[in-house]
Write a structure and sequence with these properties.
65% helix; Lysozyme; 175 residues; flat; 3-stranded antiparallel beta sheet; 3 strands; mainly alpha
Length: 175
């Protein structure tokens, strides 16, 4: 009986260690994506509208869909960022099945735009990326109203992020 208990304890311990190692591996894998979003979005503790045309508010590291008077601590925002990045990594692979095979810098740029919402709103660009036509995808991605009207809408910062995706698509089209 005692040997059985020891075997069960050893198995429980081993399972716990495997789970911890998997969690650490996932955490290490998503950290670069989280850092990309921290850099691109910055932290804001109070709800704001990055664009007055938005229906809802944003806070933390670009977390959309909060109420006007909502606030968040940096610690809470980090926890939310972890969830948001995991959800969006899952969805970007649905949109671009070969996403994880793309060069790291292109992954980061595309992910940043997916986090912002523009990749899912651009089916033509996604199709071109999925077809491997990066040169055409680069042009298509910037051929949209959001990019063209960013200055007048008071959201000029998105242009840099979008241009980075376009530049990297062109770079890898040439290789």
């Amino acid at each position: 009986m005692e040997k059985e208990v020891n075997n069960v304890n050893a198995l429980e311990f081993a399972n716990k260690r495997v789970k911890e190692k998997k969690e650490k591996a996932v955490s290490n894998a998503i950290e670069p994506f989280k850092e990309t979003i921290r850099q691109a979005e910055g932290f804001r503790s109070e709800a704001y509208k990055p664009d007055e045309d938005e229906d809802e508010y944003t806070y933390g590291f670009g977390h959309y869909g909060v109420d006007k008077d909502d606030t968040i601590t940096k610690e809470e925002a980090e926890e939310l960022l972890d969830v948001d990045v995991k959800v969006r990594l899952d969805s970007i692979v649905d949109l671009i099945p070969e996403f994880t095979k793309l060069p790291d810098d292109l992954q980061q740029a595309i992910f940043s735009e997916h986090y912002r919402g523009s990749i899912q709103q651009s089916p033509k660009t996604r199709k071109l990326i999925n077809d491997g036509d990066f040169k055409e995808a680069a042009e298509e991605f910037l051929d949209n109203k959001e990019y063209e009207e960013a200055e007048e809408r008071g959201i000029p910062g998105i242009r840099k992020r979008m241009e980075k995706v376009s530049e990297l698509l062109k770079k890898y089209a040439e290789e």
